[in-house]
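Human
Can I borrow your eye for a moment on a structure tokenisation matter? Give me a protein, with the fold worked out from its sequence. Write it directly below this note and I will take it from there.

Assistant
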Amino acid sequence: MAIYALINKDVLPFICTGKMVTKEFICSATKLKKDSVYKWLDVTDPALPTIIQAKKLAKCLHVPFAGLYMNTKDINIKSIPAIRNYRTLDGAHSIDDSSLNIAIGDVLQERDFLIAESNDLGIHLIVFSAPSCPTDDPADWAKKIREHFSIDIKDQYKCSSSRQFYLYLRERLENKGIFVQCFTDVPVEIVRGFSIYEQDLPIIGINDNDRPPAKSFSLIHELVHLIKRESSVCNVMYNATSSQSEEVFCNAVAGELLVPKDALAIVLHSGKYAKPYKVDDIAAIAKRFSVSREVIVRRLLDNGQISTMEYETYSEEFHREIKRDREEQRLARKAGLKTGIPKNVSREAIDRTSPAICKTLYYGYGEEIYSKRDIALHLGIAQKHVDKFLMEVSRWNS
């Protein structure tokens, strides 16, 4: 016999309105019947979901299951600020941005958590400062950003992986008062990153589903928007031929910063690589700078080292390779085979969580303000992984 959840019928429509989530999105995300979802969202209809169905709804909306039983006046929903849409989407008029709105709300709540907990714990938050960039030359902007945020090319070369370089960049930005947090459950085709300008603790949101080198590019791309005091949402990176000049500029700055023209010239003239560059050569150069192959071929094109036709050939090959790998993984999962490297839950939690929040949770645990259960709930991981999380964060100040 089904056990029904005696939720507050006012809560679901209140959350959906506040988070700007459509009924259609809920049906698609939860795979629950449309007629049932519509009844549950109608405060005049007595229909109630089962416990299992209510948990699916809570998971979809990124709210605690217990929140469905609360009074609406006790539920804090962050309103979505005005954000400039710089995305390039096919059939953009029909895109349902419910998942994006949920993600933005999540990041805003995390920022509020950091501010509130830092005040309670007596932790000083760094005041945001931005470099002054008087010209419109992307190379000048890249140089100023490197100097201001202490992003040293020698440190970049020392990074053992693209993941380590992303974490290095993230730390440099947070050291200047920027809040960097990953968001989940949004396809990278819909959005790779967003920025929300605030005078204190401005925000960069990064799609957790993206690869580390893509995260690094998005990080710098969104940083340029913040320096220009813009709130934005973006999905197409690397492209220098966008119809939107702001995106072209942000991509150009990010490309020059991650792979400086002079540094690339030194690598190309080292004697290791000769034209026409092989795919393995591109991969080796990308590894040198801890960036993606897509960034390298874009930089080679921008600096006149390859033709537009060669660039398109490389890009198509990379696209086919990624598509082939995804299909192989899908078939392997369907056959019940293990794919990829086993998950490192505590490391993944660190990668998607602001370093400032990680440090706050660690400090709060040391002061016996947070329990391991509190930390597990906040990070969305099992309690058994908290010890590894705490151990990793403890090394940051050693």
